Structure formats: structure tokens, C-alpha cells
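Entry 14. Ran structure prediction on the chain below.
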Amino acid sequence: MGIKFKRQKPIGNYIVDFVSSSHRLIIELDGGQHAEQQEYDRRRDAWLRSQGYEVVRFWNHQVLTETQSVLEAVRQTIQALSTVSSDSVPPCGKGEITSKGS
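Output, C-alpha cells:
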């Protein structure tokens, strides 16, 4: 996809699995323990989103058994984020820039 991701990157008090800083996208791969910590994951994701990131989660088995579907979901997310960010920049660089979530 031509997008650079960093692995195991600290953001605030959290360490995210993968992050593309240029697209403000975090990808989390979840094992079975996440079924037991859903509330923690919700709070964590909410904080990361409040920092301007989009968070996408996949189960480990999805990545292993449905790799093409996972890659397509990531591609579509990146495309949507690119559309949102280009829509928020006014023509000729004039005017106000609206941030995500405003």
C-alpha cells in the first residue's frame, strides 16, 4: 500500500501494535485476552481517538486466515482517512481547517 507503519510505538501511556503517523491510523491485533478486557480496550481506544487517531482492531486469527480481507479493510480505512483529511483543507490554504471530530 506504500504506507509506513511503526510497530510497538508508545503513544501517551499506551503502546500500540502498529501506527501510521502520516495517516493517524492505529491498527491493533487482538488475541484471546482481549475478550476479557473489552472495557479497558474501549477506554484506551477512546483516548487514542481523542488524540486524533483512528483505531482499527482485528483478531489475530483474522489476520492469519483472512489476510486479504484484513488488507482490504485497512486499504479502505486509509482511503477514507485520506478523503476526510483532504476535505478539511480549504482551497489555496485559506480559511479555517476543521479537525477530525469537530
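The chain has one domain: 6-84. Will compare against last week's run tomorrow.
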